Each structure stands twice: as C-alpha cells, then as structure tokens.
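RECORD TYPE: inverse folding
INPUT: structure tokens
STRUCTURE:
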C-alpha cells in the first residue's frame, strides 16, 4: 500500500460527505425565510458535514497526503452531487453530463493510480 492510500481514502469519504452537505444546504435553503438558521436542521446538518470534511482533510494531510494527489479525489464531490440530484431530486441528466461525470472519474483514477505506484 502506498503512503498516499489512506489520505486518498479519507478524501474519497470527504467527497461523499461534501456532496451530502451540499444537498443538505439545498434543502435548508428552501426554508430560510420561514426557519431561522439556528433552527434549520438541514442547514445545520450541512455545516456539520463540512466540519467533518475539514477534519478528514486535516487527518489526510497529517498522514502525509500530498494535496496534488488527494485533493483531486475530492473532485468526486461533483459526481456524487450530480447523482444525488438525479436519483434523489429527480433532476434531468443528459449525455453531456454523463460525459463530464465520466471524465471526472477518469481524471481521479489517473491521479490516484499514478500516486500509488
């Protein structure tokens, strides 16, 4: 196992939590006029999610993660966010979006694969 493996895994987990955090912000934003921020549970959940994301970044860097290797893995947040939008919120999804998602996966695989050699 490469010395970048755990930092990559931590950034992968952070990417999932980051997408969930964005989705929670979206849910919370719908009620901002009716519910104050301090009572808006989806908004607070999004904030908590990003606190965990920042903690995962810190641990990854503490383990020797290189930002040029680990941070591109966090780009998967865009993929997970797209999937949440499509499957949970029933947003439309077209072939150009599919191409973009595929390219993000390819890029992350290349960066991660090169780092673990």
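DESIGNED SEQUENCE:
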């Amino acid at each position: 196992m490469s010395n970048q493996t755990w930092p990559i895994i931590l950034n992968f987990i952070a990417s999932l939590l980051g997408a969930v955090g964005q989705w929670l912000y979206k849910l919370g934003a719908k009620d901002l006029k009716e519910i104050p921020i301090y009572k808006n549970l989806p908004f607070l959940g999004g904030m908590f999610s990003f606190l965990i994301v920042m903690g995962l970044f810190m641990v990854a860097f503490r383990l020797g993660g290189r930002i040029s290797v680990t941070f591109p893995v966090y780009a998967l947040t865009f993929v997970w966010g797209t999937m949440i939008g499509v499957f949970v919120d029933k947003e439309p999804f077209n072939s150009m979006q599919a191409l973009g998602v595929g390219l993000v996966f390819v890029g992350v695989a290349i960066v991660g694969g090169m780092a673990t050699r």
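NOTES: The chain has a mean pLDDT of 92.
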